[in-house]
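Researcher: Let's do a round of design. I'm pasting the structure tokens now; please hold your answer until I've finished.
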């Protein structure tokens, strides 16, 4: 029956597909069995050190894999067709995204899909690996073939010692991959099937010259053999170089590479010049042994080397001037090390040296050892121009030489040195906005004299933090920005960084910013409020001008404020209440205040007790009990802060405190001392005082 023809065709098609699948599966099983047999043979041959037979067997196995893939494509053509369609679609999409061919995408010409079938084998290009032949030209030819897409982008270097006399140039997208570097991380052992590039020349052995260039699983050796030869008498400039000269080289990978014996140069260099850049590199398990400089970072002005990551690895041996050396004047920063060990017995300069105002490094969980270094010589030197360095881990010997106030992220401590962490104490007095006098427009601790803003204190239900008032500012939109500023100038030469800010709530975009004078003398500002109507913390952290410190909040729109804070150092801001702060205090023990003597003036009736020495003063009459006090700490520089309470103690009788506009006494009655009497006063505005109590 014709009605069964579609069913028959379907069954026939299914049978054909089943046969295809069975053929592919059988081939795969055969390949797996051959792989197991090959592994056993390779292990046996490794035991007998038959490297040529190992290489031949590996090649045969790879060819069988390629034939299997080709069989799959032949027996299952739909897969290849779908792949062609997908690649063509990707080409069109890339062209549309890039706006035409620009070196990053594909031209919209379809896709022939005649792609390389596997990696590039350096042995196909004639490398020998016997440490005698010059393998440089053949190896470079293999790399160039991979770069031209004439073969796979990964160049497989077999086991052996490959002597070169010119630098190997590895362009973007190409990987040079060896077979490991042997059995020892301390010296080249030429065993365990390792691959060694034995460079004999005055330049760098390997140069990575493009995006995503990669070097993996091999050793790079400044080759000194044979004795008394050109190779022994010629020292290389370095091992591996990533140099961006008027270009950008990013996402370089160097993994499981042993860089050995570059005692006349630098093992690994990352250099940018002529507005070039070297960012986002990844360096994993890089082992450096014996060199003049281990890892070198350098950026000319206008160039940058930043945000490169080093994972694990180690630097050891002798001959070092420095292990990690970073310098500007360009941006050479945010290069991070995780878990590296840096442990030569000694270095001529230091294990780590950083210089330049745009230069810093970050060492996380790093081990620093220097068993042979004199205890008076630092293991880390951070030039005073550098700031923002981060270092933590183990500091085994000697000490760190750095301006720790500019580098609060250095947490290395030992028996010879410690790091610094400024106390997180709020330097804004009255950060709780207490004591607002709306009649006289006075807020203790703050300058609020400008009249282009109306100020009110909101109900406690609006509070964001316990015991902290919310101050609402209604900006009148004239007279420029309203500056909310502390009434005290902070003169603190012992610090370099300041972190400050305030919680702000506003529906006006840009209503408030934090502003400060930078260390250079220029005025810088924070990001402004978004106008979300929600609480946002508006603040910043930077080096401040210690000669003329200047911090304020610039307000150009209606805004609610609470919990302003200013601390020294680069730790995050900590607004809000604490057990003892500007918001108040709670104590369960004894409060002890300072006690200081106060002596009479050389002449007259204007007394000055020592400010910031205490709250209790013993008046020493120096033998003359017939004294009169009319003014107390009246000069501006000597005035006590508004609200300060002091007690004056008198051991002798006869001293008079006269009631006046400067010292306002109870019932306008003068105070006259008797033996061991006292009077307690509170500092008012303008250098005046108000009596609180007396005991006479």
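Researcher: That's everything. Go ahead.
Model: Designed sequence:
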């Amino acid at each position: 029956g014709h009605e069964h023809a579609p069913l028959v065709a379907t069954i026939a098609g299914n049978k054909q597909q089943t046969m295809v699948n069975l053929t592919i599966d059988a081939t795969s099983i055969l390949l797996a069995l051959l792989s197991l047999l090959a592994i056993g043979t390779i292990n046996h041959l490794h035991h007998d050190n038959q490297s040529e037979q190992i290489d031949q067997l590996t090649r045969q196995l790879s060819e069988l894999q390629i034939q299997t893939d080709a069989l799959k494509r032949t027996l299952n053509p739909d897969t290849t067709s779908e792949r062609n369609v997908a690649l063509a679609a990707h080409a069109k999409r890339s062209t549309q995204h890039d706006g035409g061919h620009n070196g990053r995408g594909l031209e919209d010409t379809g896709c022939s899909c005649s792609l390389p079938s596997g990696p590039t084998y350096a042995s196909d290009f004639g490398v020998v690996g016997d440490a005698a032949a010059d393998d440089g030209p053949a190896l470079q030819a293999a790399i160039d073939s991979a770069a031209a897409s004439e073969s796979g982008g990964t160049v497989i270097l077999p086991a052996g010692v490959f002597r070169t006399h010119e630098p190997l140039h590895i362009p973007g997208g190409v990987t040079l991959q060896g077979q490991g570097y042997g059995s020892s991380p301390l010296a080249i052992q030429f065993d365990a099937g390792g691959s060694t590039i034995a460079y004999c020349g005055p330049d760098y052995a390997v140069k990575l010259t493009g995006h995503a260039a990669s070097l993996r699983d091999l050793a790079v050796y400044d080759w000194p053999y044979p004795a008394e030869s050109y190779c022994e008498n010629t020292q290389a400039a370095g091992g591996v170089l990533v140099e961006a000269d008027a270009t950008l080289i990013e996402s370089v990978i160097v993994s499981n590479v042993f860089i050995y014996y570059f005692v006349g140069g630098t093992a690994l260099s990352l250099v940018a010049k002529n507005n070039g850049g070297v960012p986002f590199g990844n360096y994993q398990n890089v082992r450096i042994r014996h060199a003049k400089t281990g890892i070198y970072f350098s950026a000319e002005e206008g160039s940058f080397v930043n945000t490169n990551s080093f994972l694990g690895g180690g630097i050891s041996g002798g001959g070092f001037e420095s292990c990690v050396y970073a310098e500007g004047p360009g941006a050479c920063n945010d290069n991070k090390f995780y878990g590296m060990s840096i442990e030569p017995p000694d270095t001529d300069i230091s294990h780590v040296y950083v210089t330049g105002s745009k230069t810093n490094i970050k060492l996380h969980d790093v081990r620093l050892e220097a068993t042979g270094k004199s205890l008076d010589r630092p293991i880390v030197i951070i030039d005073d121009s550098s700031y923002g360095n981060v270092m933590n881990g183990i500091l085994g010997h000697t000490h760190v030489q750095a301006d720790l106030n500019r580098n609060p992220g250095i947490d290395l401590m030992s028996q010879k040195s410690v790091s610094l962490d400024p106390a997180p104490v709020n330097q804004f007095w009255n950060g709780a906005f207490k004591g607002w006098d709306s009649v006289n427009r006075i807020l203790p601790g703050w300058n609020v004299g400008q009249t282009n803003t109306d100020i009110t204190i909101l109900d406690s239900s609006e509070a964001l933090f316990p015991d902290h008032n919310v101050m609402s500012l209604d900006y009148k939109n004239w007279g420029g920005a309203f500056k909310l500023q502390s009434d005290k100038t902070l003169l603190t030469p012992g610090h370099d960084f300041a972190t400050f800010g305030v919680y702000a709530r506003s529906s006006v975009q840009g209503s408030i910013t934090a502003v400060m004078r930078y260390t250079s003398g220029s005025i810088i500002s924070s990001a402004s409020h978004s106008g979300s109507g929600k609480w946002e913390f508006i603040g910043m952290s930077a080096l401040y001008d210690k000669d003329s410190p200047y911090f304020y909040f610039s307000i150009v729109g209606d805004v609610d404020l609470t919990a302003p804070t200013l601390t020294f150092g680069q730790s995050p801001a900590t607004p809000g209440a604490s057990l003892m702060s500007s918001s108040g205090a709670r104590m369960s023990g004894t409060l002890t205040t300072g006690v200081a003597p106060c002596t009479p003036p050389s002449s007259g009736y204007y007394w000055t007790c020592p400010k910031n020495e205490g709250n209790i003063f013993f008046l020493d009459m120096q033998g003359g009990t017939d004294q009169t006090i009319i003014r107390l700490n009246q000069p501006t520089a000597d005035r006590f802060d508004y609200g300060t309470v002091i007690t004056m103690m008198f051991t002798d009788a006869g001293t008079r405190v006269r009631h006046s506009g400067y010292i306002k006494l109870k019932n306008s009655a003068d105070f006259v001392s008797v033996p061991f009497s006292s009077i307690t006063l509170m500092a008012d505005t303008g250098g005046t005082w108000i009596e609180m109590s007396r005991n006479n």
